[in-house]
Amino acid sequence: MKVSLIGPPGSGKSTQSERLADRFGIRHIYAGDLLRDEALRNPTVRESLRQGSLVDADIVIPLVAKEIRRSFGYVLDGFPRTMEQVYGLEALHESLDAVIYLELSEPEIVKRLLRRHRPDDTPEIIRRRIDLFHSESDPVIRYYAARGLLHPVDASGDVDTVTRRIYGVLSAVLDPLGRG
Ligand code: ADP
Question: What confidence tens digit (pLDDT) does each residue in 48-102 have?
């Protein structure tokens, strides 16, 4: 299975991706973590993370591609975030089974992130990451919707509830006739 989880910061992508990876025995490919690791070597990446801006596609795509090439199945966490990254993924001739879009209202996003205490979770940087999500990822969402791959999931509520919603979507995708 090959899926991508997209959603605004704080929508629970990572928690849910981890669960999916465990449940289906696939690799969790987490763009944010690959970049935090890359930031240890690369000051430009470090600066983008600090400011909450997106890291260049030239850096992100190869990091993710390397992980993809090592896996049979995977859940992409926070990738693709831009159309450039969508094209980067297509160039690898990977076909996703589903794109799960975790939807969360803005007040709920802010509330969750302020609780999290990561260094890039300050009010100004949160604002920037939400704005970036809309400007960069809305086209990505429309793109996958047009291809019939997009599955919006309500990301409010507790972790188990959201996990159940995602499993519901994926079982319909993997077994459209409902035989399983
Ligand atoms: P969040 O989903 O809360 O933004 P992540 O851990 O997924 O948290 O990402 C943290 C930061 O890493 C982002 O603010 C951005 O700077 C960078 N980043 C993550 N994924 C990407 C990506 N696909 N392309 C470019 N930058 C990214």
Answer: 999 989 999 999 999 999 999 999 999 999 999 999 999 999 999 999 999 999 9
CA of 93 to the centre of ligand 1 (A): 23
Please tell me the distance from the alpha carbon of residue 28 to that of residue 21, in angstroms, as a whole number: 6
pLDDT of residue 180: 57
Query: Ligand 1 pocket, 55 CB below 6 A?
Result: yes
